[in-house]
Amino acid sequence: MASMFVVLLFLSAAPLAKSGTSVTISDRGISDKDVTPALGRGYSIATGTILATCLDVGRVSESSFDYDYQYLEISSQTNTESELKTKFGVTAGVSFAGASIANNNAIKSKTEKIVQNIIARMLIDRYYNSVDEGSSTMNIHAKEILLKRDFVGFFQACGPTFFRSIRRSSELVLHFHYESDSDTSSTRFGIDAKAQLGAMGVGFFADSTTEKKTENFAFESTLIVHIKAFGMGNNLVSSGALIASKFEDAKGVLDTAYEAMVQPGSPGYVTSVEVVPWIKNVDFQLAMGANEKIELTACQDINGNNISCATGPLLIVHKRSRVLPAMLKQFNVLQNAEHVAKLDLILRKKMNFISTLEHCIGMLSQYSSHDLERYYVLDQNTGATTYYVESSATEDINSKDFQILRASRLLYLLSGQEGGQYLIERLIANVLAFIDHYFGPCTQEMGRDNKGVPGGKLMTTHWMNMDQCNDIGCTFPNSNIVTTNGITTCEMSTTIGSMSSEILVEKYCMPILWNFKPTNPYQTSIKEIMPKHLGADSVKLADDDRFD
User: Staple partner for 172: which of 92, 122, 470, 479, CB 3.0–4.6 Å?
Assistant: First the structure.
């Protein structure tokens, strides 16, 4: 257990140790379009969870930006992905360009023509958009929680850290795909294109004579124009400024996009964030009382054993006192705050899963037993498979159930009656046991008064040194509460059977029902598919969409 403690300790501390007071994060979770990082909003490094905005942001530093314009010609014979990444780096626009080229090359005309692709990429990288903490204060509601000494409640709502600065980018990619009858015309078109889009960048285009020549070459070719913009403002959508029907329209597209990218308040997509622990914020320290002196006293008996200082003066031989170092307090607060965030996420996931399961069962229960036997449920992760062996109606969960599943079979498995209890009953019992055995005692212990400081346990003691918190098994998302010989512990679920309900819900909920024509009760070759989403009319797919 001691070695595990050391490993966990250093893994948790490493990210913030890199820069002392802050850490820069640039993973996919931050750039996910379904989440909204904002200055002053809470964040947990351990879980990647974005929480409430608990800092009222005052002044914000004026951002700077870098401008990058690149031009590249790619033939169908070259290694497109490698060439794009070498030239442009790895960005959202590069991913689009690679996919666009691959798609056009795949559907190119069957005649022997010269295939060329021209990529023009404009990128604005905006940074130094940072909170001025001197003019920013704690949110009044967040401060009230701190003043009540409910430190655990604060970290549940606001997270262990907050966003101090956000780096954003805006990007525009123009992809011109064309085919010509000869190397000569293809080369001449490329030369003219480079004259207009090459090294000069935005605002520098050839005169009308050159534009006419380019249009003539485009007339001889099969020109396809793809435009993709990332992180733009809404004004571009209404003005239609990113529409181009021919090569010469690129001038207006680039000019307008550039103006939109550099204007103040231009949004952009998030590429990285800087997060700072709340314990490093002066306003937070004052509200929490983190600067109060905490004195630690240790007592020993005649044999040198540590004993409680409340034992009595006759048994105490040595008594030593020292002031708890400020850095140790900050370390304990940050580590304990991340632990609270982790436990809170585990509990919320368990509760959300129960709600999703109830909803999924409710949707399936709307159908008659006849329809449930007739329809199958589409695997929403991988789509339909072309061949499978079906489980019998009451067979135990097995690998066959993770392909295509009959709706009645899914309802049977999700109901999960076992030992007189349904699956939902067992899951609710597990959540209550988790709260009763670990979540409740651990968070209560963290919030206890200590050394004369209200709520001071969170500052004086690391969670691994609290008896109510040091069961490592309870800190994993797939853990279950088990009692053996009167001893209750947390055990991780590691087998398919124990995690089957989670996998089934992830693959099949909310259910999309499909109608098949099986050849026999067990082996089924999919010949015709008719989608029937709940509440929607059946629609027969085209021949190309059938699975044979």
Answer: 122
Query: Cα separation of 225 and 118, whole Å?
Result: 10
Cβ neighbours, 10 Å, residue 150:
15
DSSP class of 442: H
DSSP code for 421: B
Indicate if the pLDDT at residue 124 is higher than 80.
Answer: yes
**Ramachandran category for residue 201: left, alpha or beta (phi over 0 → left; psi -120 to 50 → alpha):** left
Distances (CA, A) of 355 to 153, 380, 405, 504: 24, 19, 22, 14
* Structural contact between residues 56 and 139, judged by C-beta atoms closer than 8 angstroms: yes
Q: Which has the minimum average pLDDT: 2-6, 156-160, 393-397, 510-514?
A: 2-6
* Cβ-based neighbour number of residue 162 at 10 Å: 29
- pLDDT, tens digit, for every residue of 44-67? 999 999 999 999 999 998 888 898
d(CA 245, CA 352): 48
Query: How far is residue 538's CA from residue 517's CA, in Å, rounded to a whole number?
Result: 15
Q: 3-state SS of 131-145?
A: ECHHHCEECHHHHHH
Q: Which of 77-81, 125-129, 476-480 is the least confident region? A: 77-81
Residue 206's identity, in one-letter code, is: A
DSSP letter for 531, please.
E
- Peptide bond connecting 510 to the previous residue in cis, omega within 30 degrees of 0: yes
For residue 492, count CB atoms less than 10 angstroms from its CB and return exposed for 0-12, middle for 13-18, buried for 19 or more.
middle
Q: pLDDT higher for 382 or 205?
A: 382
Where is mean pLDDT largest: 80-84, 85-89, 506-510?
506-510
Q: What is the DSSP letter of 409?
A: H
Which tokens in the block code for residue 487?
Answer: 């001893």
Distance CA 382, CA 112 (A): 36
459-472 confidence digits (pLDDT tens): 999 999 999 999 98
What does the block give as tokens for 417?
């009656």
Q: Rounded distance, CA 419 to CA 363, Å?
A: 25
**3-class secondary structure for 443-457?**
HHHHCCCECCECCCH
Is the pTM of the predicted complex or chain greater than 0.90? Answer: no
Q: At what angle do helices 326-364 and 423-434 cross, to 10 degrees?
A: 170
Residue 396: enclosing H or E segment and its boundaries? none
Specify the DSSP class assigned to residue 117.
Answer: E
Q: Pick the range with the lowest mean pLDDT from 198-207, 242-251, 321-330, 479-488.
A: 198-207
Tens of pLDDT, residues 231-249: 887 665 555 567 776 667 7
CB count, 10 Å around CB of 516?
A: 19
